[in-house]
Amino acid sequence: MITLHDHGVFFANGVPCADAPISPAEGRRHTMAWNILQAHNTGGDPENLKIKFDAMLSHDITYVGIIQQARASGMKEFPIPYALTNCHNSLCAVGGTINEDDHVFGLSAAKKYGGIYVPANQSVIHSYAREQMAKCGAMILGSDSHTRYGALGTMAVGEGGPELAKQLLKNTWDIQYPKTVLIYLKNTPPRGIGPHDIAIALVKAVFASGFVNNCVLEFAGPGIAGLPIDFRNGIDVMTTETTCLSSIWETDEVTKGFYEAHQRPEDFKELHPGEYAWYDKYIELDLAKAESMIALPFHPSNAWTIHEFQENAGEILAKVEADAQARYPKAHVKLTDKVHDGGVWADQGVIAGCAGGLFDNIQEAADILRGSSCGSGYFTLDVYPTSVPVSLELMKTGATAELLQSGAVIKPSFCGPCFGAGDVPSNNGLSLRHTTRNFPNREGSKPAEGQFAGVCLMDARSIAATAANGGKITAATDIDYTPVHREYHFDKSVYDKRVYYGFGKADPTVELRMGPNITDWPKMNPLAENLLVELAAVLHDPVTTTDELIPSGETSSYRSNPLRLAEFTLSRREPAYVGRAKAVGELEAARLAGEKPLQLKSVLEKVGNADALMDSTQFGSCVFANKPGDGSAREQAASCQKVLGGFANICYEFATKRYRSNCINWGILPFTIDKEIAFTYEPGDCVFVPGIRKAIENGVEDIPAKVIKADGGVEDILLHVKGLTEDEKQIILDGCLMNFYAKRS
């Protein structure tokens, strides 16, 4: 189905080709990505981009912190359309009043600064962006990693909050021109195949090798024409899980129909690669060969065809059990008992969010379940339409009634099941979800407390087929049903009655409504002459996700209180981290107060004159991980480390640009080491980096350092800080992005 080609290719007359009458350098100027990026590049250098976006959006886990950062840096109004959606912390019983306090803050900020406010349960963030903000040829920045609207002709990027604060302060998103990868689609998918089947197969093919890491994916080819717009959107949003930077698709009459249906025909234009467009790599994707897929815990790339899984379920689930038990020794993991009575049995099905809750997905699930029953056993099915307009149309077509009659439960628009804040299964439960991720704890369990549950990703069609079989995992391609295409009709009046449209109407007299959980950021100090960091966590997992760095779910209720939220840092992966980091922070506070702590002095004595070094050496905590930062764009993965006194990450490579950017924007040094070096150090060991301030000032990228082991031994290590822009250097020197702006204002 999928063939990877790790070499450049031209694209002409609708097909990839090896030769062209122009050079690759000229050919890349013919890609859709080049033309959109350069149209938004304000710096004049086509290789070093300084992008200003057309619009932005954030949800209620991130917008308070972003606005607080921008406000502290001198922002007076939102310079571009900025939508604040309320789709992540909508369970207001979690955390008491603090969730709704943030919603009230959001509305007051939209009135004060001229923003767009989408109340809770009206729409999930990416549905609203598709319906109301996407435009062909535009660029959108979102503080959520799944900010992807390429199928609508919009290049969209998910980044951490500080990057949005930069845009609010009329600054730019700075990046070297990325590689571009052609995704060549051909043929049409069989009946029963949905967008998640294609997306999961694509993630499986490219994730482990990093084949498209930080690249732009450009979708083209004859296979696009046969895909409905929801199908395209469903694939596109999952490109985040490939670790690509962004995406863009050819547009056509189907795309035009989307804009016409959403009463915005003026926002459509045709986009196609120019003649002899050149790509750094390409991927052939034969839709006709697609099969129903399932992604096992704990990543969308841990994927199998459902038929492969059914044939080898005992062996595959035993491996998941072993992986889970190694991660969570306190949990008593048991999934192999799901194999019985001639099948594999799940406990729950969920269709939700920006990937699953789309009109076509739910409509076809209703077609499959029409006249059937989910049964009266342990299996349950919950369905979350992605927006009120989608929910309203499903009512009009009768899909909602059919699902309810089958035993499914219809719930409001909410992202909770995607990040562990809703539909938490029972202990050792197995949940099938058409959502974006199945990382550990994305279902809301607390394995550190002895709880465990697992999420498998599947397309809505196969989830519905499974529900029709009472929870026996079933591929939609294996059942007989007739999907009925229904034209989608968008009713904007439901938004006009509830959404606050304030762009261009900033009112500085409005007072921000600040609940007791909304606090300012603590003071952060500039980088000192030397740096000493103690390893507070050493993680040797192949990849460390942002969910492990700062858990999602109910912990994010404290997102507006930096100190309170920081208490959860690495809590589900390395529970000792917070205590270690706090102990380091207390020693640094004593040093700044003029004391000379004996514990700190004894370490500095190993590398020089401790008394002389004490005044010029900053002391902080550090995290080592092989490859940190896969997953969410939430800046809290980095800011919580900094709040606890973190000053560095050391790794072989960063999983995503957005996490590395978050570290830099919070003044955390993004150190890497050579891959052939075995990192054998343990928590409690320290790393001394002499002359770090001068090295950053002068753009030195290879920095000698010393490891002072807890047993007193000293070893040399070479750290790298590659490719910092001039602004990034200064942000690190100033201590964080807020300091950077405050210093200049």
Descriptive notes:
The protein is α/β, with parallel strands linked by helices and 745 residues long. The protein has three domains: 2-289, Aconitase, domain 3 (2-Layer Sandwich), CATH 3.30.499.10; 293-474, Aconitase, domain 3 (2-Layer Sandwich), CATH 3.30.499; 530-744, Alpha-Beta Barrel (Aconitase, domain 4), CATH 3.20.19.10. A seven-stranded mixed sheet has the order 17-16-24-23-20-21-22, with helices on both faces. A seven-stranded mixed sheet has the order 31-30-28-26-32-33-34. Strands 9-8-5-6-7-25 form a six-stranded mixed sheet, sandwiched between helices. The longest helix has 16 residues, at 98-113. The mean pLDDT is 93.
* CATH-scheme architecture of the largest domain: 2-Layer Sandwich
Terminal Cα span: 55 Å
Assembly classification:
single chain
Structural class: alpha/beta
Task: Please tell me how large the radius of gyration is.
Answer: 25 Å
User: Would you tell me which CATH topology of the largest domain applies?
Assistant: Aconitase, domain 3
What is the count of distinct domains?
A: 3
Strand proportion, as a percent range, falls in 15-25%
In short:
The chain is α/β, with parallel strands linked by helices. The protein folds into 3 domains: 2-289, Aconitase, domain 3; 293-474, Aconitase, domain 3 (2-Layer Sandwich), CATH 3.30.499; 530-744, Aconitase, domain 4, CATH 3.20.19.
Layout of SSEs?
Elements: E1 2-5, E2 9-12, E3 15-17, H1 24-27, H2 32-39, E4 48-51, E5 55-58, H3 63-72, E6 82-85, H4 98-113, E7 116-118, H5 125-132, E8 139-142, E9 155-158, H6 161-168, E10 173-176, E11 180-186, H7 195-206, E12 216-220, H8 229-237, E13 246-249, H9 253-261, E14 277-279, E15 281-286, E16 293-295, E17 303-305, H10 306-311, H11 313-327, E18 339-340, E19 343-344, E20 348-351, H12 353-356, H13 359-369, E21 380-383, H14 388-397, H15 399-406, E22 409-410, H16 416-419, E23 429-434, E24 453-458, H17 460-468, H18 493-498, E25 500-501, E26 530-539, E27 544-545, H19 546-549, H20 562-566, H21 577-592, H22 598-604, H23 610-614, E28 617-625, E29 628-630, H24 636-643, E30 646-651, H25 657-665, E31 669-672, E32 686-689, H26 692-697, E33 702-708, E34 714-720, H27 726-734, H28 737-744
Parallel strand pairs: 5-6, 5-8, 6-7, 8-9, 11-12, 11-15, 12-13, 20-21, 20-23, 21-22, 23-24, 26-28, 27-29, 28-30, 30-31
Antiparallel strand pairs: 1-15, 2-3, 2-14, 4-10, 7-25, 16-17, 16-24, 18-19, 26-32, 32-33, 33-34
